[in-house]
Each structure stands twice: as structure tokens, then as C-alpha cells.
Design brief:
- With 357 residues, the protein is α/β, with parallel strands linked by helices.
- It is 35% helix and 17% strand.
- It contains 9 helices and 14 strands.
- It has helices spanning 16-27, 44-60, 75-87, 101-110, 223-228, 238-254, 256-277, 305-314, 339-356, and strands at residues 5-6, 67-72, 93-98, 115-121, 143-146, 148-149, 154-155, 166-169, 184-190, 201-206, 281-283, 294-299, 317-318, 329-332.
- Strand 6 and strand 7 form a beta hairpin.
- The longest helix has 22 residues, at 256-277.
- It is globular, with a radius of gyration of 21 Å.
- It starts with a strand and ends with a helix.
- The model has no long low-confidence stretch (mean pLDDT 97).
- It binds pyridoxal-5'-phosphate.
- Pyridoxal-5'-phosphate binds at residues 10, 75-77, 102, 146, 150, 169, 171-172, 190, 201.
Length: 357
């Protein structure tokens, strides 16, 4: 079978060796002659998986003392509501930066608990830039933002400097670059980009910041429920957590976050240089805010669409159709995507230029 260059936006490419080991464990896990997905989550073998996954997160991101790492269900989308319930007292206000569809959803959920004050937004230009130079009101409970905007292809290159606690949805760039966890009261991220299959969501939360809202929080939305039960209040999503553990082991073995950050920068530079050089293409977002994870671009001449689409499909490239709200193309370059796949796409773009030139 020839190699497919998988640029899917999520769920997305995972390391081949992780998929292989995961598939073996579905048949026979730890030589138990039982599948990983047919043993108790309270068995010694699975508890070890959960503990390993948690300690790998702490190690790879240098998580400081006082933070808890949780693997929960409900996606980052339920994380929007968990954020509000756990940090926003009913009727009070939190500051939100609106940089796209996911931020908008986070704002809608916060408004179900208290008030989301949108202090900055790039909606005026279809979210093609990251707002800058805004003030952060000191009388709001926290500042929420989305570090990487998967759909529009923008990314915060510098995080806001805030005197109020910060909470960040890092679903589409966690583990792609070094971060300072201590700057945040909470970071959350769906697994299905840089970590594993869909089905679990990572929360890294400062424990001392919880329990202060006075809200009556539904049990499953209360992060303290899950801290007390070490992410096992109910049956955890064993397979996504296991595959996340394998992916984090892969990352650690190869050199950790600094190693992948360099590769991610190289991949992004390679593709954006070609977008800028090649007269047939145009980037969608403000240059200084371009995402290293999701590159959005369009054809200067839409009439050439069918021809270009045929060329990249012939080159075994998959998953670069843009999101319907942006159009054009979106090449997602998550951690497991090798540089050679980006090179394959760049080669097609060059060849396309040659045939048109
Ligand atoms: C930045 C961001 N936030 C939130 C979500 C929603 O995540 P989930 O599907 O896990 O609810 C996504 C999904 O792609 C995303 O990219």
C-alpha cells in the first residue's frame, strides 16, 4: 500500500508505530491474552496506563506542583461548560477573546452560567487574525482564549499577559510547542489532534483554584469529582487514554516537546514559504498570526480548482479541503505528520505552477 499523506484536521494522523502497538493491544494486551478494551478499568494493568499517561503529561509539559491532570469525556465542547461551572460564579463575568468558531462556542456556554464579556474579537475579518492591544478588565473572574484556531488557521504567537487567571483551550496545539503551564489556572484539550483518538479530553488544572464559585455543579461537570476519583469516577474511555499514553511515550522517546516544536516550525516554514512564493496561491490569515498546525490558503484563480484537486489526490495527499466557513484549503500539520508529507504537498504546488506557467 502506498503512503497517504494525511493532512486531516482532526481526528488526524497518529504515529504509525503507535497505531501498530495499539492494534496489537486490542487483541492481546500486556500478554494477558485479553484485549485492552475487555479488561476492567480498575485492573492493575489499566491503572498503570492511566498513571503513565498522567505522569507523561506532567513530564512533557513540565507541569508544576499543585496542578492535577485529568482524562475526561465530553470533548473540549463540554470543557467550555466545565470551565464556566468551575470558575465562574453564577451571574458574574469572565473575559473571553473571540478568535473563531470554537471560541464562539465557549462564549455561548459561559453565558449559560454567568456573563462572557468579549473583550476582543477578530470576527470583523472572518477570524483571519489574532486581536492585539486590548485591555483585560481586572474585575472579571478569568480570561479565556483558544491558543490555536483550527478552522481559520491562526495561532497566538505570544500569550496575553494577564493579572486575572487564564484558561486556555489548547485542543489543536497542545504538545506542539513549549508552554508555561504555571501561567494558567486551567488548560484543556481534546485528544484527537496531537495526542490520540477522539473520546478523551485532557484537563490540566490548578487545584487551589477550584471550589471557589459557590455554584451547584452537576457531579460529572465538577472537576473536583474527577480529581477525587483520579479520572475514574465513572468508566473512563480506556482506548483513547491508552493510545494517548502511547503517543506521549513516542514523543518522549524522540526528544519531547522541544524536538517536535522544531519539526513543526520546519514544516510550517516549508509550506508557508511555498504559499508566499507561488503566484497561484494565497494565504488566508495575517502573516504574523499563521498557525503552525493548520495552514489555510486559497487558489488565486478558483477556476483551476478541479485541476489542482486532481493533482494532489494523484500524489496520495488526503484531507486538505478547507472548512466550509473559510473555503480553499487547509493543511493540518500535527505532530505525527512527517516533514516529507509537507514536502510532497509543496512538490505538487510547484508542479502545478510549472504546468500552468
Ligand atoms: C480549538 C478547538 N476547540 C474545541 C474543539 C471541540 O472539541 P471536541 O470535538 O473534542 O468537543 C475543537 C475541535 O476540533 C477545536 O479544534
Amino acid at each position: 500500500m502506498s503512503k497517504v499523506h494525511n493532512f486531516s484536521a482532526g481526528p488526524c494522523i497518529l504515529p504509525q508505530e503507535v497505531l501498530k502497538e495499539a492494534s496489537e493491544s486490542v487483541i492481546n494486551f500486556n500478554n494477558l491474552n485479553l484485549s485492552l478494551i475487555e479488561i476492567s478499568h480498575r485492573s492493575k494493568d489499566f491503572i498503570e496506563v492511566m498513571e503513565n499517561a498522567r505522569s507523561l503529561v506532567k513530564e512533557l509539559l513540565n507541569v508544576p506542583e499543585g496542578y492535577q491532570v485529568l482524562f475526561l469525556q465530553g470533548g473540549a465542547s463540554l470543557g467550555f461548560l466545565k470551565t464556566a461551572y468551575n470558575f465562574l460564579p453564577k451571574g458574574e463575568t469572565a473575559a473571553y477573546i473571540n478568535t473563531g468558531a470554537w471560541s464562539t462556542k465557549a462564549i455561548e456556554e459561559a453565558n449559560k452560567v454567568g456573563n462572557a464579556n468579549v473583550i476582543a474579537s477578530s470576527e470583523d475579518k472572518n477570524f483571519n487574525y489574532i486581536p492585539k492591544g486590548f485591555g483585560i478588565p481586572s474585575d472579571t473572574k478569568y480570561l479565556h482564549f483558544t491558543s490555536n484556531n483550527t478552522i481559520f488557521g491562526t495561532q497566538f504567537k505570544r500569550y496575553p499577559v494577564s493579572r486575572i487567571p487564564m484558561i486556555c483551550d489548547m485542543s489543536s496545539d497542545i504538545f506542539s510547542q513549549e508552554i508555561e503551564v504555571g501561567k494558567f489556572d486551567m488548560i484543556y484539550a481534546g485528544a484527537q489532534k496531537n495526542m490520540g483518538p477522539a473520546g478523551t479530553t485532557l484537563f490540566i488544572v490548578k487545584e487551589s483554584a477550584l471550589g471557589k464559585t459557590g455554584n451547584e455543579i452537576p457531579t460529572m461537570l465538577d472537576l473536583q469529582t474527577h480529581i477525587k476519583k483520579e479520572s475514574m469516577f465513572n468508566t473512563p474511555p480506556v482506548f483513547p487514554i491508552y493510545v494517548s499514553m502511547l503517543t506521549l511515550q513516542w514523543l518522549k522517546k524522540n526528544g519531547g516537546v522541544p524536538w517536535i516544536q522544531k519539526i513543526n516550525e520546519d514544516k510550517a516554514n516549508l509550506l508557508y514559504s511555498e504559499i508566499d512564493r507561488n503566484g497561484l496561491f494565497k494565504g488566508v490569515t495575517a502573516t504574523e498570526d499563521r498557525s503552525n498546525m493548520n495552514a489555510t490558503f486559497v487558489l488565486e484563480n478558483e477556476d483551476l480548482k478541479e485541476e489542482f484537486n486532481q493533482m494532489w489526490k494523484d500524489a496520495n495527499i488526503s484531507g486538505i479541503n478547507g472548512h466550509r466557513s473559510v473555503g480553499g484549503y487547509r493543511a493540518s500539520m500535527y505532530n505525527a505528520l512527517p516533514l516529507e508529507s509537507v514536502q510532497a504537498l509543496v512538490d505538487v504546488m510547484k508542479e502545478f505552477e510549472r504546468t500552468k506557467g
